[in-house]
Each structure stands twice: as C-alpha cells, then as structure tokens.
Amino acid sequence: MVVDDHPVVTDGVRLLLRDDPAIRVVGSAADAATAVRLVGRAQPHVVLLDLRLPDAMASEIVAPLREAAPAARILVFTAYRDHAALQATLDAGVDGCLLKDAGATDLVSAVHQAAHGIPIFDPRVGERAAPRMRSRLHDTGLTQREYDVLRHAAAGRTNPEIADQLGLTRHTVTGYLRNAMRKLNARNRIELIAKAAQSGLL
C-alpha cells in the first residue's frame, strides 16, 4: 500500500511495480487517518509511507499502522534525507527508509526484501539507523559480513545466489553461515533465521 498525498508519487510507484508479478498494489491513501483505516482493511505485507502527510508526520502513525496490521513492514519513502523528522521516524521503529529518487530496480528489490523481513535503509540515510543495529550485532557477536549473508539467507536465497549478490565465493558464504549458526547457537539454516528474528536482526 502506498501512503502519499502526491498523486504523481502514487501513480509512479504503481507504474514502477506493475511489471513484477509477485507485487500487487492493494491501495493508496493520501492522509494518515485514511491510511490506518485502509491498512487495517487490506492487511498489506508492505506499506510505503511518506515522511510528511497533511494530517500527521510518519513517526506519529507508525504505532497505529502496526496496531491495524501487525504483520505489515513499514518503509518510509521520502525525498528528504536530511529532514529533522526522519530521525523520529526511524526511532519509531520503521522497517526501512527509501529515498524517492530510487530507481525501479531498487524499489522492487526493497519491497521484496521488506516483505521477507529484511531491514532496508538507503545508504544515504542508513547511518542514522546504524547505532541501533550495531548494538544488536554486538549482542550476538555477528560481524557485519555475517549479518549481510544472514539477511540474504533469510530472504530465501541459496548460497550461490548470495555469493553472486555479495561478490563472495560459495565457500566463503558457507563459512559465514557456519559462523552465524555457532554464534546464535543454531543447528541449521532454518533455526538460524528463526533465532536471528527473535534477536531483532530480521
């Protein structure tokens, strides 16, 4: 679902996503009140949420949206990477942040990854969310690279696919996953992903 008060943005998102058969835009809303009502009715997997709406800032409706659709992943979709309200929105616990100049491939990839529970933060704003994630990684002992491999595994990618995505050898990917299993005390890939989710990493 797209929550944005600019029709050109909503129409543009629909246009960029329409060629992916696995993605369907189930609705749109131009204000916070309508968004909460429609999200509760449609139960979307992913919500693209504009930072500023006519009746609320994004940070103010994250909690109502989660109450309306607990399983929905919320991605802030904004043109303002330096807006003062962005930090408050990240602190509200959104699942990612994407800038509106993202290309079609980036947008489609972000929607898919968000739907699989992978946090998505544009590199240009990702450092704002970094302290919280670094704290979680420190608690588990995972390195950043082990975490990168884990995120791709959680999205259902095979080791060869992960290797291609990250520019690693298959042997290295296997090693990172083995390390992650040891650090999270998991016996297999499925248990690893489950424990990572329980730790707030996914």
**Average pLDDT:** 86
Shape, please? globular
Which blocks of ≥5 consecutive residues have pLDDT under 50?
Answer: none
In whole angstroms, the N-to-C terminal distance is 21 Å
What is the highest CATH level, the class of the largest domain? Alpha Beta
Radius of gyration: 17 Å
Strand order of the largest sheet: 2-1-3-6-7-8
Oligomer: single chain
Question: Into how many domains do the coordinates divide?
Answer: 2
Number of helical stretches of at least 4 residues:
10
CATH homologous superfamily title of the largest domain = Response regulator
Assign a percent range to the helix content.
55-70%
Protein name: Response regulator, two-component system
InterPro entries: CheY-like_superfamily, NreC/VraR/RcsB-like_REC, Sig_transdc_resp-reg_C-effctor, Sig_transdc_resp-reg_receiver, Tscrpt_reg_LuxR_C, WalR-like
Organism: Saccharopolyspora erythraea (strain ATCC 11635 / DSM 40517 / JCM 4748 / NBRC 13426 / NCIMB 8594 / NRRL 2338)
Domain Response regulatory: 1-115
Tell me what the structure shows:
The chain starts with a strand and ends with a helix. The strands form two sheets. It has a six-stranded parallel β-sheet. The chain has helices spanning 7-17, 32-42, 58-68, 84-91, 104-115, 123-140, 144-154, 159-166, 170-183, 189-198, and strands at 2-3, 28-29, 46-50, 52-53, 56-57, 73-78, 96-99, 120-121. With 202 residues, the protein is α/β, with parallel strands linked by helices. α5 links the parallel β7 (96-99) and β8 (120-121).
